[in-house]
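Action item from last meeting closed. Structure (266 res):
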């Protein structure tokens, strides 16, 4: 099974590009983030015509997560236990969607940005990650052999190798000690970075800002990940970042991240 995650940064803008890449790269399951559409306007038929079942969780023109699969979609779940709310009035945002695909419980996750170190959204981000770690630990405690993949835009660069300039981010989100501790807590709950062994840093990124020529200058961040349970990790045969997808006409500011599984344990 070939699994990918991609923050598409508006599916309405990039639908043709996503569908073309899905088939060219022979992707079996794609977790998408930042679809920026509500459920009523999600392009379900376009994915069906391409041979994919699809589930989506979107409330409005913000956030939005989806999973497209040609190996089945079972038991879809929007959100996870304890996921905090945001807004006025507070509500659970469309940031998490899970489904069973080809024997793997795939989660498409769009972790809150945090905005600034002194912004309430930063505390919301930390609470969101804490809830993810707690739920993730619970899933493995309930079923130690579960094959789980936490896929998505974590909005955290967990090591110095994951940013182009640590000094630039010294007083910003994404690299602060508390965020990195929160990311490490998800790993400590039993999840393994499936991509890092196959695409080590420094200089290997998944995101480049549109402004200030960040991409041609190779000034990026690695903030998109596939974290797998031990049972999923044992089946990984390859992984890569599709940097070329950041090029061309109207690209997302994120590149897809791809993981190949072989001989998934039953």
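Sequence:
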């Amino acid at each position: 099974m070939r699994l990918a995650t991609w923050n598409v940064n508006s599916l309405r803008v990039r639908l043709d590009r996503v569908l073309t890449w899905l088939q060219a790269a022979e992707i079996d399951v794609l977790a998408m983030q930042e679809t920026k559409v509500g459920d009523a306007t999600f392009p379900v038929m376009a994915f069906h015509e391409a041979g994919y079942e699809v589930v989506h969780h979107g409330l409005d023109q913000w956030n939005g997560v989806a999973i497209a699969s040609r190996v089945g979609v079972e038991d879809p779940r929007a959100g996870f236990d304890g996921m905090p709310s945001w807004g006025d009035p507070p509500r659970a945002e469309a940031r998490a969607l899970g489904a069973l695909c080809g024997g793997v419980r795939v989660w498409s996750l769009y972790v809150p940005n945090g905005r600034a170190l002194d912004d309430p959204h930063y505390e919301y981000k930390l609470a969101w990650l804490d809830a993810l770690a707690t739920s993730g630990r619970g899933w493995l405690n309930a079923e130690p052999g579960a094959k789980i993949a936490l896929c998505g835009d974590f909005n955290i660069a967990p090591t110095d190798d994951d940013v182009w300039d640590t000094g630039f981010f010294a007083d910003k989100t994404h690299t602060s000690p508390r965020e990195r501790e929160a990311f490490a807590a998800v790993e400590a709950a039993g999840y393994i970075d499936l991509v890092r062994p196959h695409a080590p840093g420094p200089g290997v990124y998944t995101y480049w800002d549109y402004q200030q020529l960040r991409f041609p200058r190779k000034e990026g961040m690695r903030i998109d990940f596939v974290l797998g349970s031990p049972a999923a990790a044992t089946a990984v045969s390859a992984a890569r970042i599709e940097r070329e997808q950041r090029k061309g006409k109207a690209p997302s500011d994120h590149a897809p991240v791809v993981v190949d599984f072989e001989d998934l344990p039953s």
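Note appended to the action item: The helical segments are 11-24, 44-49, 120-142, 177-188, 230-233.
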